Every structure is written in C-alpha cells, then in structure tokens.
C-alpha cells in the first residue's frame, strides 16, 4: 500500500499551514514537493471475478470463494488504487508530475508476491526483481484508465532516483547556506 506517501504529503502540507502565523490562507507550492513512493510489490492482477459471477453471490461467497477472500481482495486493491490515483492527480493537476515517482512491480507471482516468506532464496529473488525494476522506464498513472503506463522516451527508475537525489542534495546545500548566514547575522 502507498498510504505512507499520502500521509507524508499531508504532513508536509500541515507543517506549511502550521508555520503560517497570519490568518491569511497560504498557497501550498505542490510543485516543490518531491514524492518517492517505493512499493512492496503486488500480485499480478488476475481477473478472478466478473460482474455476472458476483451478482449471484450471497454473504458467504463474499467472505470466502475458493481459496480467496473476495471482500478483502476488493478492499485492499481499491484502497491502494484510490491512493495511487489521488497522488497522481495532485501531481498532474499542479503540473508537477515529474516530481512524483512511484516504483512498484505489480506483476509478481507465486512466493515473490508473499510478505511472509523470508528464505534466503526468496530474498535473493526479490533483490533481482528490484535490480530489474531500476532498469525499467518510469511509469505514470493514466488518469483516464487508472493504469500505470511507462513513459515513452522517458528516464528509467534508476535515472529518476538519481535526479531526485541531485535535487535533494542541492536543496540541502541551499538550506545549510541559509542557516549559516542567519547564524552569522544573529551574532
């Protein structure tokens, strides 16, 4: 889930509002936000159910159907999708889509998609998956389809992370210089 990314954006926004001592509203400069959201991976989306099938279900079918729990599947998938869509919409609405990076592999299958298998072999497989994910192109949510699509002729995830690191490094240097100058002025 990417709830942590949404919580982080809200915390920064609240911090900006709380620093405003005036009673005037403050403009939040979303274009200055950098959001890196690293997913834990999700199972390959399977089309297990269709509307004709679920239209005939009773309560017990929603709780348990075959080897799955449909109500839990729908809830967890839709919650993550809504947060993805919300963050992508904010980024694109404020023309700062290049400042929102979501890295997630949503094609995991078998034990690679499980959270509780910590064998050496599985951890090594996950490391390899992560390395391959760095080489893939950056993806953005298509707001019409709510599907992540690779950006054509765009940068790779690794290149995007390096770009973010440079921006953050520059920001830190600027803040350190401002702090140094304000400390000298106080003396």
Label this structure with key terms.
lipid metabolism; 6 helices; lipid degradation; elongated; two-stranded parallel sheet; 187 residues; mainly alpha; monoacylglycerol lipase activity; phospholipase activity; single chain; Cytosolic phospholipase A2 catalytic domain
**Mean of the pLDDT scores?**
81
Number of continuous helical runs? 6
- Report strand order across the widest sheet: 1-2
Most strands sheet: 2 strands, parallel
Low-confidence region ranges: none
* Helicity level: 40-55%
Radius of gyration computed on alpha carbons: 21 Å
Distance from first to last alpha carbon:
48 Å
CATH superfamily: Cytosolic phospholipase A2 catalytic domain
Q: How many strands appear in the DSSP assignment?
A: 4
Basic shape: elongated
Oligomer status:
single chain
